[in-house]
Predict the structure of Glycoside hydrolase family 1 protein.
Amino acid sequence: MTTEFPKNFLWGGATAANQLEGGYQEGGRGLSIADALPGGPDRFKIVQQPDFDWTIDETRYRYPNHLGIDHFHHFREDIALFAEMGFKCYRFSISWSRIFPQGDETEPNEAGLQFYDAVIAECLKYQIEPVITISHYEMPLNLAKKYGGWKNKALIKFYQLFAETVLTRYHQQVKYWLTFNEINSAAHFPVMGQGLVPANGANDQRNIFQAWHNQFVSSALAVKIGHQLDPNLQIGCMILYATSYGYDSNPVNQLATLQQNQDFNFFCGDVQVRGQYPAYTKRLLAEYNLKFSDLDWTDEELALLKAYPVDYIGFSYYMSTTIEVTQQDHASANGNLVGGVKNHFLKASDWGWQIDPTGLRIALNQLYDRYKKPLFVVENGLGAVDQPDAQMQIHDDYRIDYLQAHIKAMAGAIDDGVNLMGYTPWGCIDLVSASTGQMSKRYGFIYVDLDDAGQGTLKRYPKQSFYWYQKVIQSNGQNCL
């Protein structure tokens, strides 16, 4: 390997407001959909029940997102630790319901804006570039309950006002933005990205595609607003990417793999990056007995998509998936909202996610070949059970091994000619897992003393990986190669 990481490479880490902030009823904040998600490994099963109606029932469930790791009161301490690691950037999200508590107000909550004033100022104090996700699985609960989530076109104007508010307020301090987190995840699980559960239409695929269209229009409006404020702002999309392999050389499995890539890995990116619906949209819709004319769209909206594509592609990468559709009896391997059959060449994490750093190099090449726009790995990491010793030291060699292998894969992609902007491993500090609602599924470089029952001191302890990543950034990745 000969190529070095670019001198301005954005090393950092990533979090989301709903998973770490807490303060869920402080500073005028309203409830978000994340506040209504029960904790525990069965949370997805619970919200997929036909009677789940977003009611918060503390007699039956725990709601760990309400506290998160209390970043609301600890953000200065946390950002100081990020600075100690040497972060060049920090990816975080703005809680929509902290700015517009119900989502449909006409005036923002000034106290919420002042909180992010302080967070951004703290980052800039340490020369850390904020990378802000405008909407990260945390739409106001009222928009899901009263309006039925993103299938309702009324949400376009609500998002437009939210985006305009934060872009206008922060465009002079914040250069890098993302419009929606893992927008394509709704293909498998629309509750977090679209606010859809069976009770308000999640089982009708037309609603999923309509919600996507409304989000695509909203993303284009955010790009338009941002570029009008400052043409140099970088506003990207964010997709969940799972490199897909055909199980064998059976042409049927190869075709299914091609279509899996189109339908899941590329569809949302094709619209947001290329500015138009791809040719295979007809085939994709037909699989659900739908036509494009079944959706509510206008020529003006399609023109908006064309005029305001995103500037770069942010994506999460945790694992690959293997496609086998001939109904053979294979062990399954599930992961980040994506299923598939077990790949016997790969090991898996404590939660069964298959570890595949080479798949990241493939993903980077596939995305760059397709779009020829800068790429940003904005999530990647290993969820694991960390056991502190008596001195509260955590020896997480397994996390270091995982991240080092993926950094090598990124270097390989740069050798391949890929334009890669940066790397923000997920959960740079321990936080509540989105998929399981657990604290015990830890990703961070920093251990937070809090358990699944919400018990603990909330004290922060650097792990072994903290000091390793510090050296990665100091050497601009050279100590991994």
In short: The chain has one domain: 10-480. Residues 10-480 form a domain with the TIM Barrel fold (CATH 3.20.20.80). The chain has a mean pLDDT of 95. Residues 88 and 478 are 16 Å apart (CA to CA).
